[in-house]
Amino acid sequence: MSEEFKIEIVNPEKSFLVKDDVSEVVVPAYEGEMGILKDHISIISFLKPGIIKILSKSGNESYYIEDGIVEFKNNNLSILTSSIFNIADMDKSKQQDLLKQAEEESGKEEISDQSRYLIDQKIEVLKTLN
Amino acid sequence: MASLDDLKKRIASVKSTQKITKAMKMVAAAKLRKAQESAEKGRPYSEKMNNVILNLSSGISDKENAPKLLSGTGNDKVHLCVVMTSDRGLCGGFNSNIIKKAKSYFSKILSEGKELKIITVGSKGNDQLKRMYGDKIIENISFKESKNANYFDADKVGKIVIDKFESSEFDICTIFYNQFKNVITQIPQAQQIVPLNSEDSEDNTSEESYEFEPDEDEILSNLLPKNISTQIFKAMLENSASEQGSRMSAMDNATRNAGEMVDKLTIQYNRSRQAAITKELIEIISGAESL
């Protein structure tokens, strides 16, 4: 019996990634990092800015993500997100741009505590990437 | 009877119009393929989003305290209508169909004595609605600069809707757009997005229980605003595919009509040319005879 399950990442424009030989996925869930293996209980959760790690037979991949929803059901993992970047394709200048943007936003006065928390997260993750 | 010169000029002008409509048709066909593709690609996202929300709302235990975006404000006094049209004309009945649908809805609401607020997306809708419902239009958004429908624009519209909902400016929100069926048929749609209408898809909710992290309420209150943007984005994608399809068939018709007109004018031109020759011959012959 294989220990693999299916992952699908969709963003509003298209189906971003589909893989069916995934053995483990680590997602930055709202309340901490979460590793998902086969036969995980059905779960719905949010993602905060962070890195998705996909471990599969055909190679491991990492994606930087800013927000999203993750749903796991019947060994199908769906991730809905509006902003996702493959780390391998991300060059330094892109990272710097995102970081600058996030820092600008965190400099604003009027944002709520929750979004400030998310932005701080974003900055932290982006810094570790550099 | 128009003179030969006039006819010649008309034929030339119709021919050049035909060239333009033909070119527009080709451009629309090329754009249609792209728009159709992105509409199809965008479907999984909105479908998945819908599924998640359905599963969530079926799992919610406390219906009373459910987020307002899901359950509504309990009133239906103020209606907000988001009418989505194109920024460009010459696309057949595309805009008029949406407007017609919207107008019949408006008059129904107004006859029930309810309040109406309109947001128009796209300048053509605004042009057609401002004469009759000018005082009802509270916002006019147009994305002339962006070439293709993108999520960023949809999110902007979504944020406006949510802002207005949170400051309780309306109770029910409906969006109007054209659903793309095929090149010839586009179906104008009225879709209620606030509160969420889950009646039509009740049957595919699963019995399976989910684990939620954080709890249902928090997820829902985060997800619902996103869903609004997603629905608007879906409408924009459908709309842009419909617009190109509609323009393509309209321009195809126009090209054909122009061709028919050229044929008719050419026959007329040849007839009058021949009539002129015959007349000249008669004049010469009768002149010779009188000598």
Task: Describe it.
The complex is a heterodimer of chains A (130) and B (291). Helices cover 25% and strands 44% of the residues of chain A. Chain A is α+β, with helices and mostly antiparallel strands and 130 residues long. Chain A folds into two domains: 5-86, Sandwich (ATP Synthase, domain 1); 91-129, no CATH class. In chain A, strands 1, 2, 3, 4, 5, 6, 7, 8 and 9 form a nine-stranded mixed sheet that branches. In chain B, α1 runs antiparallel to α6 (216-289). Chain B contains six helices and six strands; from the N terminus they run ααβαβαβαβββα. By secondary structure, chain B is an alpha/beta fold. Helices cover 62% and strands 14% of the residues of chain B. Chain B is elongated. Chain B folds into two domains: 4-22 and 251-286, Orthogonal Bundle (Helix Hairpins); 27-250, Pyruvate Kinase, Chain: A, domain 1 (3-Layer(aba) Sandwich), CATH 3.40.1380.10. In chain B, β1, α3 and β2 (115-121) form a beta-alpha-beta unit. Chain A binds chain B through residues 8, 10-15, 29-31, 34, 41-46, 69, 71, 73, 78, 80, 82, and chain B through 38, 41-42, 44-46, 48-49, 51-52, 55-56, 150-151, 154-155, 206, 208-214, 219, 222-223, 226, 230, 233. β4 (43-47) of chain A pairs parallel with β6 of chain B, so a sheet runs across the interface.
Determine the fraction of residues in helical runs of chain B and give it as a percent range: 55-70%
CATH homologous superfamily heading of the largest domain in chain A: F0F1 ATP synthase delta/epsilon subunit, N-terminal
Element-by-element helix/strand order of chain B: HHEHEHEHEEEH
Structural class by secondary-structure content of chain A:
alpha+beta
Got a strand count of chain A? 9
